[in-house]
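Student: I would love a firmer grasp of how sequence relates to backbone shape in proteins. I am handing you a single protein, as its sequence and its fold in token form. I am told such tokens are a discrete way to write the fold. I hope you can help me see how the letters and the tokens relate. Take your time, and here it is.
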Amino acid sequence: MPLVDLDRIRAADEQLAGIARRTPVEHSRVLGEYCGGEVFFKCENLQRTGSFKLRGAYTRLLALDEAHRAAGVVAASAGNHAQGVALAASLLGIHATVFMPELVPLPKLAATKSYGADVRLHGVALGETLAAAREYARQTGAEFIHPYDHPDIVAGQGTVGLEILAQLPEVRSIVVPTGGGGLVAGIAAAVKAEHPHVKVLAVQAEQAAAWPVSLAAGKPVRLADTQTMADGIAVGEPGPVPFAHVAALVDGVLTVSEEALSRALLLCLERAKLVVEPAGGAAVAALLEHPEQVTSPTVAVLSGGNIDPLLLLQLIRHGMSSAGRYLSLRVRLPDRPGSLAGLLAKLGELSANVLDIEHSRISGALALGEVDVEISLETRGPEHRQDVVDELEAAGFTLVSEG
């Protein structure tokens, strides 16, 4: 399969002028100290529609002839691709129909509708949604816009690579969140054509890592299941077009844990003041778990920032727990006046901030005159968290469980 060349990516870059934003490259001191070198963020989370997807979608739609434009386009997505196609179609005066899962987060549904797409909810799993979109294309003649498996998509996403080279010519490593592979394929095609010495690394969630097994097999391999918080890169099988590029151009694939993904999201939010979705922060997670794999200066691509506020709250809590800054305890106390006050006084002495507390008197494990107290605490890090546990036990408190 012929690879997308630099001329094609440069042409896409010209076409996207005034359409896609030239997103900033921001220095990260905290990650630089962790990795022992200079680290920068390529902030595609600040792109229009909140992700890089507009680049590929607009490039793909712009290439359609008049007959295909008149027939309209159809796409299937749980979020970012949907918004990219919807906006691109609106800008080009093309009718877009977007199929989304029935349980899609409301902010993503509202955003896609706001860009002018006709949204149809179908299926629970994205596979069902994708099948419905393909059937719609067959019945109506609308052009199906694949989220990653097309040369025009790869060329559009490759403009991220051109921007990185222009903004940071001395870059030596680029780390890219990877699902179907359109983004890393495009970045690698752009970067390797001009600077073949620059290391390009793909990042996948451990629980949705189709690329390592596919590359080992020499062809795209479908995973039986994908279970990760990083739904934006939870793709069960790479596409043939990105596969050819990744196999030829990408230097390696790193996988990251769910814990690292939540820590990365919290780091971006707290230290860089940047909102990312779990998939969008996968490159940061890779630097937290595999700092030895990169050569400075390094660019971590923040691929998207579209996250449901309710999920964000859950992930902040998960990230704080992973970083040792959150502690949940079940403490067994005598059910008499002053017992809870004694526990709270001790926690105050230990500078542990109480977030919430709940009594439970109904349990087969409780003796008469006992009560379990579920208490959530904010701590200052792993050492402080362990100190709290040790000091409570030393003071005679019975800890039934901790987490």
User: Anything to note?
Assistant: The two ends are 51 Å apart (CA to CA).
